[in-house]
Design a protein that fits this description.
Layout (H helix, E strand, L loop, with lengths): L2 H29 L4 H21 L3 H13 L2 H30 L2
Helix pairs in contact: 1-2, 1-4, 2-4, 3-4
Keywords: Membrane, Transmembrane, Transmembrane helix
Pfam family, one: Spore_YtrH
InterPro entries: Spore_YtrH
């Protein structure tokens, strides 16, 4: 799979984890008679790191790619991994911003 395709996948996986988890948390908050919008924004902030980790498939693969730079001298592997990390972070952050925007709508 190409780097661009992987970037899109990582972005939308992280985005989906944050948005989906926040929406389901908001539904749960509604069912237990808690303020759903407030809880959704709090959950989105807490899920941002998990969206990043989930999109990357765990953190060990990232560390293994970094290790290859030192053992095998493959600098292109670390650059690709950094690009994928940035893409996943952008997806998780975009999901958080979307949930915050939904919370500010009146």
């Amino acid at each position: 799979m190409s780097l661009l395709a992987n970037m899109f996948l990582h972005f939308f996986i992280a985005f989906g984890i944050v948005v989906g988890g926040s929406l389901m948390g908001g539904l749960g908050s509604f069912l237990i008679r808690q303020p759903p919008i407030y809880n959704m924004t709090t959950i989105a902030d807490n899920l941002k790191i998990w969206g990043l980790v989930g999109a990357l498939g765990g953190t060990f693969d990232s560390f293994m790619q970094i290790e290859r730079v030192f053992t095998e001298g493959q600098i292109s592997a670390i650059i690709k991994q950094i690009i994928l990390i940035i893409s996943a972070f952008a997806g998780a952050h975009s999901g958080t911003v979307l949930i915050q925007w939904l919370g500010k709508m009146d």
